[in-house]
Design a protein that fits this description.
single chain, 256 residues, 11 helices, 75% helix, cell membrane, transport, transmembrane, MetI-like_sf, transmembrane helix
Amino acid sequence: MIKLITPFENVSKTTRTIILVGWIVLLLILWFVITSGEKHLFPSPDQVLKGFEELYKEGLVVHIFNSLKLCFISILLAVILSMLFAYSFPLPLLKPISEFITKLRFLPFTGLSFYITMVVHDARNMQIWIMVIFLTTFLTTSLISVINAIPQEEFDHAKSLKCSRFEVLWQVIVLGRIDYVIDVIRQNLAITWMMLVTVESIVVASGGLGFLIKNSDKFMNHGRIIALQIIILLIGLFLDWFINYLRKAIFRYSKI
């Protein structure tokens, strides 16, 4: 027992699983106790279960697929643009553009979306480009950080093999850091998933989980809101696990 409260103590996988299950059980017990009275701020488990049933009857599965489709299209376009900006960072002529893109991540969300709505009129395309613009700024920043973290020895090694400047760029930065790109996507996926629900709640014409949350909040249905939060959390955790598993399966010798 002392080992469990000792800093930096290594515990077995079974012990970690028991600890995790114990915390989940404790959380569920607290949830039942706190919501057992007639008046409670947080919705009870019965209200949340009822929320799941209502959401399923209203086409929850369709809305989940709409959100996932928006997520995948947005992150695919954002990754392509971010890689172009990041890989042009070592070029002196294009470096200021890449640095400028990274600074755009401080722009407010609402202001930029207003101008996008003036150019793009289709609701789905509007959501996609709002997501792409914001994701590109964060992904470009992360990818440039990966490039800056490459040890000078790797560049010197490529030069000693008589590689040209562009061959060094291709071998060391592009090919040599593909596994890092996947990890950057995984890290920024949480931002993607969080922003996606916000974007869908702003532009509700195409449906999605954000649309369901906005409707539930409008009618003060807290059971449905918590049910949706649980669904969003579980999907986000699954996507994070899947991308990490994919990276480890493809790049088995990665040092990340």
